[in-house]
Design a protein that fits this description.
By secondary structure, the chain is α+β, with helices and mostly antiparallel strands. It has 4 helices and 6 strands; from the N terminus they run E-E-E-H-H-H-H-E-E-E. Helices cover about 30% and strands about 20% of the residues. The longest helix is centred in the last third of the chain and has 14 residues. It is flat, with a radius of gyration of 26 Å.
Length: about 150
Amino acid sequence: MDYTIKELTDGIAVVTFADDSWANVPVKTSDTKETFEERVQGYAPKAAVSNPSWIEAGQTGSVGLTSPVLPAAIFSHGEDSDNPAWLDARIAANGSMASQLEFITENGLEAWQEEVAKIKLNTLVHNGDNQCHYKSYDINLVSIEM
């Protein structure tokens, strides 16, 4: 379908289509004409389809908020969990997923990555086999000074 870019601002193109519909289409600095047009195609009007008989203009409804079902491991660890021991140890060291997300939200991703690196350094275990073990990860031992 033919389109026209009516307005262009930082990162957004207001595109109108032949049927007078329009869309705000994201523009990326890495776009080529082809990749942009592929994106525009996703916003283009689709072929008309008939509506199901149960829906009509002015109809109202109600929907509730739903929560995704997440594994219990995200929220709990210890004797009452069904987690493998390595996962309980990791949750104990790093905190739950919820607490890690809260840390990222309050302090930023880089600060969280630094915190995880500190935890890994403080929980490395040397087993006498020229390997340092952190939970389920193996790291070649060069030298560690603490």
